Amino acid sequence: MLKHFLLIVVLFLVSCTSTATSAAPQSPQSTSTKAPTNTQIPTSTPIPEITIGVVEVDILNIREGPGTSYPTIGSLTKGEKFYVLGDVTNSTNNKWLLVSPSNNSFGWVIGEQTYVTVQKEIVDLSTYLIWQKNVDDAKLALITLTATP
């Protein structure tokens, strides 16, 4: 809808410019100029958006791998937010989230809605870049985990 509005405004401005140019008095030596037809429509800057999780239970264990058989390496408490970098469904058909509770730390939490809420959040550019770097680093962990021998 915003793109259509901007297109209408640009077309209106272009038509006003060409009308004003043709209505202006011209001297015999001048040549008429036309408004460029390939006017580019300005685009807005994308809003940085990341995927975060919010803890819904009193204590949520962070594990070394996607399953309860992996050792606990930390925990989060109710209401805490964390970066969601990816997800996987393990051999028992449970969804696990690869998370980064702080910079350069990775672990796994259960991805069921009773434990966490996953949502999108608009952030500043520096936070987005940190999240994106963590996502890129985490892709190696996902590839290693899901690779079949």
Key features?
disordered N terminus, 7 strands, alpha+beta, 5-stranded antiparallel sheet, SH3 type barrels, 149 residues, 30% strand, two-stranded antiparallel sheet, 2 helices
Q: What's the pLDDT, averaged over the residues? A: 73
* SS summary, helix count: 2
- The name of the CATH architecture of one domain is Roll
Q: What's the CATH first level of one domain?
A: Mainly Beta
Sketch the major β-sheet.
Answer: 5 strands, antiparallel
Task: Report how far apart the termini are.
Answer: 49 Å
Output the strand order for the largest sheet: 6-5-4-1-7
Q: Structural class per helix/strand content?
A: alpha+beta
Identify low-pLDDT runs: 1-28
SSE order: HEEEEEEEH
CATH fold node name of one domain: SH3 type barrels
CATH evolutionary superfamily of one domain: SH3 Domains
Shape: globular
The amount of helix comes to: 25-40%
User: Which percent range describes the beta-strand content?
Assistant: 25-35%
Which quaternary structure do these chains form? single chain
If you compute it from the alpha carbons, what radius of gyration comes out, rounded to the nearest whole angstrom?
27 Å
Q: What's the β-strand tally?
A: 7
Would you give an account of this structure?
The protein is α+β, with helices and mostly antiparallel strands and 149 residues long. It has a domain at 49-146: Roll (SH3 type barrels), CATH 2.30.30.40. The chain contains two helices and seven strands; from the N terminus they run H-E-E-E-E-E-E-E-H. It has helices at residues 2-23, 125-146; strands at 49-55, 59-63, 72-77, 81-89, 95-100, 107-110, 116-122. The strands form two sheets. The chain has a five-stranded antiparallel sheet with strand order 6-5-4-1-7. The chain has a two-stranded antiparallel sheet with strand order 2-3. Strand 5 (95-100) and strand 6 form a beta hairpin. The protein is globular and about 55 Å long.
